[in-house]
Amino acid sequence: MHTNANGHISDTFSSSAAVICCNNLIELQVGKTMATPPTSPQRAQQAARQAEREQRQMGSPPGRRQPQQPIVFPPNPALMHHPPVPVDQYPGIPCHLIENLHVQRRHRLRSSSPPLPAAPLPYFDQPAAPPMWPPAALPAQPPMGYQAFAVPPRQPENWLPAALPVQPHYIPNQQPPMGYQAFAVPLQQPANIRVDYNARLMDNFNATHQHQRNRRSNRHTSAAQAGPASEDIEHRRQLELQQQVLYQQIEHQRQLELQQQRLLEQQQLARHQQVLEQRSLLELQLLARRQQVLEQQRHQQELEQQRLLELQLVARHQQELEQQRVLEQEQQARIQEQEEIRQAQHENELNQLRQLSQALVEEALHEYSQHSAEQYEQDQRRQQQ
Question: Which of 59, 140, 154, 155 could serve as 65's disulfide partner, Cβ 3.0–4.6 Å?
């Protein structure tokens, strides 16, 4: 009898129990054979029933050792601190053995796992093995061995500390809390150190039940067992190995924590550097934006000043044009006034000349009239003469 990777008990004692059952059945068959002839129909019917009974008890076809559907019992208040015995999972084994085995198995699954041993050291050309996480989901194999058909899935059970008794299900299909690991975590063994935590328990289990089988077969008590000196030495050796493994695990955990702390500090430093770079980049972008805004404002001011200068030049030009127009009007008025004065002077001169000429004409006429009268008289006298 030994344990597999999951810590389950193999079928050594179950096969021995099956052998005992076969011996008892053979004895019964031999006793009945003496009473009935081998060719009688009662003998054939009895043999068929016996073969069917053997098939049902021992499970001769490997695919029929477990029922297809699990047997579901109603919740029983009397089973408060006494879990139900899964008789259908372990055929051919007494109920008290199944119960003890089941309690040990539940305790091993629900209690905290032994500490993980340390990984092998990286020097001496030994590369560090990767950590086995998340653990591989190993299928739960019952002690009867390999199953040739699909085993119904395990129903998760309540989480309980190692010190409290295991409680059954009051509600069918009850689920455990989140984050609960239903399977045992596989151990990562260090180099050249193999520790079997279940060896002592299974040895005691095998010795006890082998003693029970010997008593049952021999019908008398056996001799006393030897003293516990060798067991104490073995226990002390295993304890030293476990302490050494625990020390290596603590050292490895401390190294991992230091490495993780270093990595965390590097990540924080890189994150801080990234934040500083982003801040400097934002400051540069903000400065460039401010300079761009200042340039735009300066350009706007220059455009405004140029527009004001253009408006001032236009206003000055209009003012000069207005002044020139006023000067031209004044000059034209002055010229017109001078022309009027000249015309008035000319008219005055003309009037004076006209008056003077008229006076001269009148004077000349007056003189001519006198002279002409005298001349006319002289001409008349001359003609008369």
Answer: 59
Most confident of 65-79, 145-159, 217-231, 313-327: 313-327
**Helix, strand or coil, per DSSP, at residue 3:** strand
Q: How far apart are CA 375 and CA 381, in angstroms?
A: 10
Using only the alpha carbons of the chain, give its radius of gyration.
Answer: 68
Instruction: Tally Cβ neighbours within 10 Å of residue 233.
Output: 10
Per the CB < 8 A criterion, the answer to whether 239 and 197 are in contact is no
The predicted-structure confidence for 68-91, as pLDDT tens digits, reads as follows 555 665 666 665 666 566 667 777
Distance CA 30, CA 74 (A): 42
What does each C-alpha distance from 240 to 215, 231, 234 come to in angstroms? 36, 14, 10
User: Tokens standing for 53?
Assistant: 């009974």
Residues in the chain: 385
**Peptide bond before 122: cis, by omega within 30 degrees of 0?**
no
Range 287-312 burial, b when 16+ CB lie within 10 A, else e: eeeeeeeeeeeeeeeeeeeeeeeeee
Neighbours of 110 (CB within 10 A): 18
Sign of the CA dihedral running 201, 203, 206, 208: negative
Residue by residue, DSSP assigns 193-212 as: ----TTHHHHHHHHHHHHHH
Q: Are 198 and 7 in contact (CB under 8 A)?
A: yes
Which residue from 338, 15, 251, 266 is spatially nearest to 145, judged by alpha carbons? Answer: 15
pLDDT for 171 equals 45
* Residue 315, amino acid: A
What is the b/e burial string over 246-278, where b = at least 16 CB atoms within 10 angstroms of the residue's CB? eebbeebeeeeeeeeeeeeeeeeeeeeeeeeee
Name 3's bridge partners. Answer: 9
The helix/strand/coil state of 192 is: coil
Classify 181 as helix, strand or coil.
coil
| Per-residue burial over 138-172, b = 16 or more CB atoms within 10 Å of its CB, e = otherwise | eeeebbbeeeeeeeeeeeebeeeeeeeebebbeee
Which tens digit of pLDDT belongs to each residue from 167-182? 444 444 555 555 544 4
